[in-house]
Specification:
This protein is 8% helix and 47% strand. It has 172 residues and is mainly β.
């Protein structure tokens, strides 16, 4: 275990300052799209019934509350993407309140450049969230895509809330 811990630390510092908890790498297509929620929740909205807000916890996170059915869907920013290209997706999340069964950071691809036409699922970073921060990851290769939208979703018992931070979507 000691070896493993050292390896994880090396990986963290080898990728730049605070890389494991910092989404500002220019290779992250969400780096300029409020990926880290430093000041507000701008660019990230909840579907009707659910809600999102800025939470000053941990130097800024996105807090999201479920609708009355125990569902949560968040629409993230639309960013340009290339067709037939491999991408990775990751985010950190934790349970802030209540019982959450499952979360998934889904990504949809679109045939136009405004995330409005030809929607198709691209990939997801799924995981059952816990009260401690954990990172979910996933990867996918685009088809005929010119733009993508990140759409985090969760399900659980009505009244739950989750926190998200450090969304990453980039090539490779
Ligand atoms: Ca943050």
């Amino acid at each position: 275990m000691r070896f493993l811990a050292a390896f994880v630390l090396l990986g963290t510092f080898g990728s730049g300052p605070a890389a494991a908890a910092d989404c500002r790498d220019p290779a992250n297509l969400l780096a300029q799209q409020n990926c880290g929620f430093d000041k507000d929740a701008k660019g990230w909205t909840a579907v009707p019934g659910a809600s999102v807000s800025h939470d000053v916890a941990d130097r800024g996170v996105l807090k999201a509350a479920a609708d009355s059915q125990g569902s949560l869907t968040i629409n993230g920013p639309c960013v340009a993407a290339q067709g037939k290209t491999g991408y990775h997706i990751s985010a950190r999340l934790r349970v802030a309140a209540g019982t959450v069964y499952f979360c998934s950071v889904n990504v949809f691809q679109y045939s136009d450049d405004r995330c409005s036409q030809g929607q198709e699922p691209l990939g997801s970073a799924p995981g059952p969230p816990a009260t401690a921060w954990a990172t979910v990851t996933g990867s996918a290769t685009t088809g005929v895509a010119r733009s993508v939208q990140v759409q985090p979703v969760c399900s659980g018992q009505p009244g739950f809330a989750v926190q998200f931070d450090d969304f990453v979507f980039g090539k490779g």
